[in-house]
Amino acid sequence: MRPEGSDTDNIRDSLANVLARQRLAFIERGAPSLEERRADITRLRDAVKRHANAFADALSADFGSRSRQESLLADVWPVHAAARHALRRLPRWMKPKSVPVGVEFAGSRARVLVQPLGVVGIIAPWNYPVNLALCPLVAALAAGNRVMLKPSEHTQRTSELLATLLAELFPEEKVAVLLGGPEVGAAFTTLAFDHLFFTGSTAVGRRVMQAAAQNLTPVTLELGGKSPCVIAPDADLAQAAMRIANGKLFNAGQTCIAPDYVLAPRENVESFISAYQAAVKKLYPTLQANPDYTSIATDRHYARLTAALSEAREAGARIVSIDAGEADLAASRKIAPTLLIEPADDLNLMQEEIFGPILPVKAYDRLDDAIAYVNARPRPLALYYFGASAEGRDRVLSRTHSGGVTVNDALSHFVIEELPFGGVGASGMGFYHGEDGFLAFSHRKAVFLQGSVDAKKFLRAPYGKLFGAMFRFLMRG
To answer: Which own/partner pairs from 213-216 qualify as long-range (CB within 8 Å, at least 24 positions apart)?
Structure first.
């Protein structure tokens, strides 16, 4: 639906009305059964499968040109995988979990009940608008919630397809899709949800958290940051370059966990440049008419990237453009894969998440220098380590902080449903995927069941010698 009215108050009232109807439905009907949750997830999974090609068409139209295979692989398949994983494991996730109470409470029991929170809000971004809308939706439905979803206005065709599809699958009291621009998004964040899930930039994430704080709404923030690739001296450079290029250029670098910069041993920098050029030419022999190579999604982001490259060029940075001699890329809003060698740290491309096919390369002398460089900056959403030795790998893993890590590859940790996905520090808070997603949208209620034997009676007034003996017992060891 599109919220009625044009002014802020009317938009917020329209959104609040949807929230009130969903909350009333949740209160009246209670938590859905395992069977109902499975039916909801199955309907969603099957519908996404049926509309896979329609989503790929809509995504390509929204981007100007987007690889069909990348859309199917990165936007459609993860939803299917998340649904399949949840359907298999949901009975175990929902089952109350008994916990030990200790000898002090002998005869009593304790358990954890996992309950849905109620009504949750999901704000999805434009870079993977199907995946990052529907994978959180799978988790929220698995947890038994009702959902209000705000997709991105920058991918209008895809967002409208999502709205149409979800309206066919669910009543608005269960899942409501709210279309609209920034004014709808801003009003959405002010609603008193039971949980708010946001995927997007760190800058917008700060505003989302600030708005949610007015209602003490708990948030999951999946943000981004500058995800480093640390190449160890013993790394296979050809292999590392191919895997970094694949991770960097997938969706033309418009990925929150895309490799953002490379730290390479000083003596290997030139070899890495050559290996990366060879990898790019193998992956994308041409660019302009190549349907595998995705356009930059919007004019604004294209202008931002070209301006950042111009700044680097004017500052004297060494720029290696791998463009196969094609001069008309701007017509299709494509940017050639580009290396930025030893850029100054004050350049925009070294300060902000790049979100495009530009890859800075910095040299280091000792692995500890690379670790120090990473640690001197905000904690990233992902880190990639390339090397053969376990010692170097474990040193980087233990001495750096990031949301997640893939070793000797890029992006792969994102698609493992058993791994939690989320950021740390400026790259986000909270986790989802698999059981972590189920728990993100759940309340774990502690329940204590007093038995017929009550050892605590010795800890009540009036206090006497038995209290002293009992307290000494409690303090044993």
So the answer is: 214/190, 215/190, 215/191
Note whether 289 and 328 are within 8 A (CB): no
The structural domains of the chain, ordered by start, are 8-223+429-444 (3.40.605.10), 228-419 (3.40.309.10)
Query: 3-class DSSP state for residue 381?
Result: coil
pLDDT in tens, 223-259: 999 999 999 999 999 999 999 999 999 999 999 999 9
Helix (H, G, I), strand (E, B) or coil at 341: strand
Q: Give the per-residue pLDDT at 361.
A: 98
Using an 8 Å Cβ cutoff, are 210 and 32 in contact?
A: no
Is residue 177 predicted with pLDDT exceeding 90?
Answer: yes
The answer to whether residue 74 scores a pLDDT higher than 60 is yes
What six digits make up the tokens of 338?
A: 């580009």
* Encoded tokens for 199: 């995927």
- Rounded to 10 degrees, the C-alpha dihedral 359/363/364/370 comes to -10
* CB-count exposure of residue 207 (10 Å: 0-12, 13-18, 19+): middle
pLDDT at 323 over 60: yes
Q: Inter-axis angle of helices 182-189 and 202-213, to 10 degrees? A: 50
| Model pLDDT, residue 330 | 87
Q: Which residues in 323-343 are b (16+ Cβ under 10 Å) and which e?
A: bbeeeebeebbbbbbbbbbeb
Alpha-carbon span 292 to 60, nearest angstrom? 11
Catalytic residues: 222, 256
**Average pLDDT value for residue range 367-379:** 98
Write down the pLDDT at residue 240.
98
Separation of CA 74 from chain center: 13
Contact 363, 272 (CB under 8 A): no
Contact 241, 272 (CB under 8 A): yes
Nearest to 133 by CA among 109, 149, 120: 149
Quick one: what percent of the chain has pLDDT higher than 90?
A: 89
Question: In whole numbers, what is the pLDDT of the chain averaged over residues?
Answer: 95
